[in-house]
From TrEMBL, chain A:
It comes from Tessaracoccus antarcticus. This is DUF485 domain-containing protein. It comes from the Bacteria. The chain crosses the membrane at residues 63-85, 97-119. Residues 1-12 have a biased composition (Polar residues).
Automatic annotation (TrEMBL), chain B:
This is Cation acetate symporter. One of its GO terms (molecular function) is acetate transmembrane transporter activity. It is a multi-pass membrane protein. The keyword Cell wall biogenesis/degradation does not apply. The keyword Ribosomal protein does not apply. GO terms for cellular component: plasma membrane. The chain crosses the membrane at residues 12-35, 56-78, 84-105, 126-144, 164-184, 196-216, 256-280, 292-317, 351-380, 401-419, 425-450, 462-480, 500-519. It comes from Tessaracoccus antarcticus.
Length: 141, 546
C-alpha cells in the first residue's frame, strides 16, 4: 500500500501548524501530500450507517475482541498457575527447565503467532473495505 | 571479590570508551537536527514520514529502556522465574496495543492521547486530565532511567557511597538536559533506531557467548546458576540457587503482589504516552500496524535474550548474587558485570564492559530525551496552549514554555533519581506502567469502543486512576517500611503490595462506568464520525514527523 494516497492535510486541528520553523521540543508537523477532500460531518454520518461499514466493524471486532480475550486468559492463567500451583509449575520437564519456564516461553510463541494471525486477517479482510471506503469518501465533492 | 567491590575493569579505559559513545550519539543528534533545519522544505515534501520498519525500530528503542536491559537481567539474576514475568508481561502487553489501540489511534489523533479523547468530549477538561497523567507517568519512567544512569556511571568509575552516586546522578541529569536541548525529537528518533540495533546486537552477542559457555544447553546454564548460588558465600539468601527455577522466589510471601505486578505489565504499555506518540510518527494506520509488528519481533527477541543473560549473570559472575549486590547499582549492575566477566575480566572484559555500558547509557539518554520531549510537548500543547490560552497561544511563546518545561522535568528527575537509586529499575518502571494502565488505558479503550462514553466518565477514570495508583504507591512497601524501600527507616505503609495495579486498574474502569452513566450522552454525531475515522482512516492527517 502506498503511503501517498493516505495523506491529507490537517483541517480539523490547526493549533500547531503556525508554529515557527524551529519549534522543538514540540513535534514537527508536516504535510506530504496535496490537499484532499475532507469528508463533511454528513458524509461521515452516511458512511457510519452504511452496510459496508457495518461489515468492516463486524470483521474487526469479531477478530480483535475474542483474540484479546484469548491472550489475556492465557496470560493470566500462566500468572495464576505460577502463584497457586507452584509445585506443579516447578515440575522438571527438560533437564532443569520446569513446566513454568516452558509455559513462559510458550507465551512468547503465542504472542508472535497472534501477531501473525492479526496481520493476515487485517491485510486480507479489513484493508480492502477500509481502503475502498476511505478513497470513496476522500474523492467525493 | 575485592576487585568487584571497588570497580569493574579500569575506570580510565571505561570512561574513554564510554565517552566515545556519548560523543558519538551526540554527533548523530546534532547532524540530524542541523540537516533538518537546513532543508526545512524537505520536511514538507516527503522527508517527513518514517517507514513502518524505521518506526518499529524506534519503538523498540523507546521500549527497551534501561529497565529492560539492566533491570530485567538483574531481576532474573536474583529471582529467576519471578524476574521472567517482567519479560513476558512487557511483551504480551504489545498485543493490546496491536489489536486494540495502535491503528484506530493513528487514524483519529494528531500526536497526543488528549487529541483522541478530546475528539468527542469536552476539549479543555479532558486535555487537562490527559496532560496531567502524561506528566506523572513520564516522571516515574524518568526516575527509573535516572536511577539506572547513576548506578551505571558509578559502576564504571568505581565509585561507592551515597555522595559520589548522588553527584553522578546530578551530572548525568545535566548532561541529559543539554542533550535534549540540542537534540530534539528528530535527533532522538534517529538515536533510538541506531541504539535499538546496537542494544539488540549487544544482547544477542552476550547471549550466544553465555550459551556457548554451556555448550548451547539452556538446562546446563540453569543448573550452573543454581549450583553457584546455593553456596552460602554467593547466594543472596540461604539456598538462593534452588529458588531460581520454581515460581515465587521473590513473591512467595506475597503472591497477590505478583498478580498485581502482572496486571500493571500487561495493561500498561498501551497507555504509555511516549509509546502512544510513536503511533503518530508514521503516515498511515497500515504503517502503524507494520511498526508494531516490527516492534513485537524485536522486543520479543530481546526479552528472550534477557532470560539467558539473567541466568548467565547468576552463573558466570564470580561471587554470584552477593557480588552483584555489592556493586554500585546493585541488581541493575548484573548485565554490565556479566559483560566484564564473559571474556574473563582483565583487558578484554574492560573493553566489553565499556562498550555494553556505552550502549546502555545511549539507551538511557535516548529514552530520557524521548520522555522529556513527550512530557514537555504535552504541557505546552495541551495545558499551556489549549487550556490556558484557548488554543490561541503565541507560537513562539508555546515553544518557550516547552523548553522551560524540559528544565523543570530534568530537575525533578534528578531529585527523584537520587531517592530511587538503589531500587531495581524494572520494578520502578513497573510503577509507571501501573499508573499508565490505571489513568490512561480505560479512557483510551472506552473512547474508541464504547458509544455511551462521555467527558464525565473519562475525567472520573483518569483522575481516579491517577490518584489511586499514586496514593497506593506512596503507602506501599516500595516507599517505606521494608529494607528495600526508598525510605527504609520510616514505616507508613499500609498497602501490602508493592505495585498498585490490582486495585487501581479496576477502580479506574469502575469510575469510568459510573461517571459515564451519571453524565449525559454527548456529541453523538462526533462519536459516529470518530468511529468511521478510526476504522477507515478517512480524513486522517498525513505524515507527521518528529
Amino acid at each position: 500500500m502506498s503511503t501517498q494516497d493516505d495523506s491529507t492535510s490537517p483541517t480539523w486541528d490547526k493549533s500547531e501548524s503556525n508554529l515557527p520553523p524551529d519549534h522543538w521540543p514540540l513535534p514537527e508537523i508536516s504535510v506530504t501530500a496535496p490537499l484532499k477532500h475532507q469528508p463533511t460531518a454528513e458524509e461521515f454520518a452516511a458512511v457510519a450507517v452504511s452496510p459496508e461499514f457495518a461489515e468492516l466493524k463486524h470483521r474487526f471486532k469479531s477478530f480483535a475482541f475474542p483474540m484479546t480475550a484469548v491472550f489475556l486468559i492465557w496470560y493470566f492463567a500462566y500468572v495464576l498457575l505460577s502463584v497457586f500451583a507452584r509445585d506443579f509449575m516447578a515440575t522438571p520437564i527438560i533437564g532443569n527447565l520446569n513446566l513454568g519456564m516452558i509455559l513462559g516461553l510458550l507465551q512468547f510463541v503465542t504472542t508472535f503467532l497472534i501477531t501473525w494471525l492479526y496481520i493476515r486477517h487485517a491485510n486480507k479482510n479489513l484493508d480492502p473495505i477500509a481502503t475502498k471506503l476511505r478513497s470513496e469518501m476522500e474523492a467525493q465533492r | 571479590m575485592r576487585l568487584l567491590e571497588t570497580a569493574l575493569g579500569s575506570p580510565l579505559l571505561n570512561i574513554i570508551i564510554f565517552g566515545v559513545f556519548v560523543v558519538g550519539t551526540m554527533a548523530v543528534v546534532i547532524t540530524v537536527t542541523r540537516s533538518g533545519q537546513k532543508s526545512a522544505g524537505e520536511m514538507y515534501t516527503g522527508g517527513a514520514a518514517f517507514s513502518g520498519r524505521q518506526n518499529g525500530l524506534a519503538i523498540a528503542g523507546d521500549y527497551l529502556s534501561a529497565a529492560s536491559f539492566l533491570g530485567i537481567v538483574g531481576a532474573i539474576a536474583f529471582y529467576g522465574y519471578d524476574g521472567l514475568l517482567y519479560s513476558i508481561g512487557f511483551l504480551v502487553a504489545w498485543l493490546v496495543a496491536l489489536l486494540l489501540v495502535a491503528e484506530p489511534l493513528r487514524n483519529t489523533g494528531r500526536y497526543t492521547m488528549a487529541d483522541v479523547l478530546s475528539f468527542r468530549m469536552k476539549n479543555k477538561p479532558v486535555r487537562m486530565a490527559a496532560a496531567l497523567s502524561t506528566l506523572v507517568i513520564s516522571f516515574f519512567y524518568l526516575l527509573a532511567q535516572m536511577a539506572g544512569a547513576g548506578g551505571l556511571v558509578s559502576l564504571l568509575l568505581g565509585l561507592k557511597g551515597d555522595l559520589a552516586q548522588n553527584t553522578i546522578i546530578v551530572l548525568v541529569g545535566i548532561l541529559m538536559i543539554i542533550y535534549v536541548m540540542i537534540g530534539g525529537m528528530k535527533g532522538t528518533t534517529w538515536v533510538q533506531m541506531i541504539k535499538a540495533v546496537l542494544l539488540i546486537l549487544g544482547a544477542a552477542i552476550m547471549s550466544i557467548w553465555v550459551l556457548a559457555t554451556f555448550g548451547f544447553n539452556l538446562s546446563e546454564l540453569f543448573g550452573k546458576a543454581v549450583e553457584v548460588n546455593n553456596d552460602p558465600a554467593k547466594g543472596l539468601v540461604a539456598q538462593a540457587g534452588d529458588m531460581l527455577l520454581p515460581p515465587m522466589s521473590k513473591y512467595g510471601s506475597n503472591p497477590v503482589g505478583f498478580i498485581s505486578l502482572s496486571m500493571a505489565l500487561v495493561f500498561g504499555t498501551a497507555g504509555l504516552p511516549h509509546v502512544l506518540m510513536r503511533f503518530y510518527t508514521v503516515p498511515t494506520a497500515h504503517e502503524a500496524r507494520r511498526s508494531v509488528t516490527w516492534a513485537i519481533g524485536l522486543i520479543g527477541a530481546f526479552y528472550l535474550f534477557t532470560l539467558i543473560l539473567g541466568f548467565g549473570a547468576a552463573a558466570i559472575i564470580p561471587g554470584g548474587q552477593q557480588a552483584i549486590e555489592a556493586l554500585p547499582g546493585k541488581a541493575n549492575a548484573a548485565a554490565p558485570a556479566l559483560a566484564y566477566w564473559l571474556p574473563g575480566g582483565d583487558l578484554g572484559g574492560s573493553i566489553f564492559l565499556a562498550v555494553i555500558s556505552g550502549v546502555a547509557f545511549a539507551t538511557i539518554l535516548a529514552v530520557v530525551a524521548g520522555l522529556t520531549i513527550t512530557a514537555s510537548a504535552s504541557f505546552a500543547h495541551d495545558i499551556y496552549n489549549a487550556v490556558l490560552k484557548d488554543g490561541k497561544a503565541d507560537p513562539a511563546k508555546e515553544v518557550k514554555v516547552a523548553r522551560y518545561t524540559v528544565l523543570v522535568i530534568g530537575a525533578l528527575a534528578i531529585v527523584g533519581g537520587i531517592a530511587a537509586k538503589s531500587q531495581n529499575i524494572a520494578f520502578l518502571v513497573a510503577l509507571a506502567f501501573a499508573i499508565a494502565a490505571s489513568a490512561n488505558l480505560p479512557s483510551i479503550l472506552f473512547s474508541l469502543y464504547w458509544k455511551r462514553f462521555n467527558t464525565r466518565g473519562s475525567l472520573a477514570s483518569i483522575y481516579t486512576g491517577l490518584a489511586s495508583s499514586l496514593i497506593l504507591i506512596v503507602f506501599s512497601p516500595a516507599v517505606s517500611g521494608a529494607k528495600t524501600s526508598m525510605m527504609p527507616d520510616v514505616d507508613f505503609a499500609w498497602f501490602p503490595y508493592d505495585n498498585p495495579a490490582l486495585v487501581s486498574i479496576p477502580l479506574s474502569f469502575l469510575a469510568a462506568v459510573i461517571g459515564t452513566y451519571t453524565g449525559k450522552a454527548e456529541f453523538p454525531e462526533k462519536q459516529k464520525e470518530m468511529e468511521v475515522r478510526s476504522m477507515t482512516g478517512a480524513g486522517a492527517d498525513g505524515a507527521i514527523a518528529h
